[in-house]
Amino acid sequence: MLAPVGAAARQPQAAPSADYRTRVPQDEVIYFLLPDRFENGDRSNDRGGLSGSRDVTGFDPAETGYYHGGDLKGLTDRLGYLQDMGITAIWVAPIFKNKAVQRSGKYQSAGYHGYWITDFTQVDPHFGTNEDFARLVNAAHARGMKVYMDIVVNHTADVIRYRECPGGDCPYRSIADYPYQTKGDVTGEKINPGFAGDAVATRDNFAKLTDPDFAYMPFVPPAEAKVKVPAWLNDPIYYHNRGNTTFSNESSTMGDFAGLDDVMTENPRVVDGMIDIFGGWIDRFGVDGFRIDTARHVDKGFWKRFVPAMLERAKAKGIPNFHIFGEVALFSTDPGGLALYTRYGLPAVLDFAFRQAIVETVAGDAGTDKWERLFDGDALYADGYATAMTLPTFGGNHDNGRLPTMIARNFPDAGPEEVMARVQLANAMLLTLRGVPTIYSGDEQGFVGDGDDQGAREDMFPSKVASYNDNHLLGTDATTAVSNFDEDHPLYRQISRLAHLRTSTPALTRGRQVLRHRGEKPGLLAISRFDPSTDDEILLLFNTARAPVDQMVQTEVASRRWQSLAGECAPQSAAPGSVRARLPAFGYAVCKAVSD
């Protein structure tokens, strides 16, 4: 769809380093990566300073669920690769020190992903040091690029045990059946006198919650009694201790996420502690934003204190546009469930509804009217479209899999050319529609994935994982067994062209949207975006069907002549307010109205 471009055309176009702080969230193009799977810049830290087998060090580069060796130095060394692609902000999966290996029943794996935190104050030794992180942030800022940290307030590593279930698989116990003021159940010994429940989020009330034995009898094994940092996190009283969540109803915010210790974020002492922890990372390193993991499973009142405190710390550090967005994993093109969290206090959320629209219309056969439902819902967010523009959008990720996997699953008859065309169409939507486009590491190199979670966490550096290396990547004869930082890969070139187009075109970063055409079947989706200063129109055309489309599309009457910014556009309107759209199967075009 896009003509090949040479290296000269891909030279960095980021704002000068002195200006990066002035960019608002919707001005960015984000790249998301797991440090362990991106680049290995220092092999001496592969085992995190530990010795022994993989059961101790967590290091086994041949297994999907263990550390592979990527680190912060490797990421710093590859910043030029990202900048050339048009990336302006890097979202880094959690870098905090993790419990290296955890076991749950018969299942064991390592904390390579960063979500099993023990020490919230330092970098995991597998990834490097706090000084390495400082060098990364400073190097990115010198290039005019931002750095977003992935943070966790919902849970810590699995350290707390329950005496009632030594095997570790503890079912959720509700507040009604196991209230805070009795030990074990409603017939048990009276405890915590005067505690009015977790809904009364005052210091005086929580001072009366002193005994954690209300549902289970939690304890910390002696060998791990002081493993968590800051030290207050070692006390079971600051956790819910009610057993595993079912991810619904009361247990969604009260239960242990897959056995991880669920922090009682209702407690003012916990809120204070989390503010101190993450405010400290802003103070020390000057990071530019937070992606908040498992935000859906945190007490909703937490955000009313935590978010303003983070924004205040950022402004005091000279960061006026600190970007905070939470993970609320809901899989529907109806964004109501997502929008609700922006009214609880989160400035933005990951746009799972946008991702679902791509899955259903590009990796599926739903009609393009799915996008109307999605964008109509922008009015539901706090501050409406102004908030919707700041939502990070994406097509695939490390939890839910890559788009080629979904395409192959839904269209088993699709050959490599069709899969590539569908992926390029999704990229075009991602990089031109409202929101903040987020590229997942490896998508620009044609990674296809093997499914969700570990199946979508391939190495960018030469991999030793057999299940990764046997995949046929898109657009290349290479495999994941070799280094994949090819700036001539067709998907890298496409993303680079569109990313630079986006960041140089205000209509595509900050412009309002008008839906021009949608249908009940696969086919044409047409949307106009408008320059926020001049109101000049840019017409976006997408064809989700296996057949070409040729039809008229409504535009502004004043938009009479057109310039092609991507794809093929009619040079002029057929009549005032109407232009012909001709697109091949899975084609797209970006058409700019030009003055007479």
Describe the structure.
By secondary structure, this protein is of the alpha/beta class. It contains 18 helices and 21 strands. It has helices at 35-38, 54-57, 72-77, 79-84, 130-142, 203-206, 251-254, 268-285, 302-316, 336-344, 352-361, 370-376, 385-388, 403-410, 416-432, 466-469, 490-503, 506-510; strands at 30-33, 89-92, 96-98, 101-104, 107-110, 117-123, 146-151, 161-162, 218-219, 289-292, 323-326, 348-349, 392-393, 436-440, 512-517, 524-530, 537-543, 549-554, 561-566, 578-583, 588-594. The strands form six sheets. The chain has an eight-stranded parallel β-sheet with strand order 12-11-10-7-2-1-14-13. Strands 15-16-17-21-19 form a five-stranded antiparallel β-sheet. Helix 8 packs parallel to helix 9 (302-316), helix 14 (403-410) crosses helix 15 (416-432) and helix 15 (416-432) runs parallel beside helix 17 (490-503). It is globular, with a radius of gyration of 25 Å. It starts with 29 loop residues before the first strand and ends with a strand. The model is unreliable at 1-16 (pLDDT under 50).
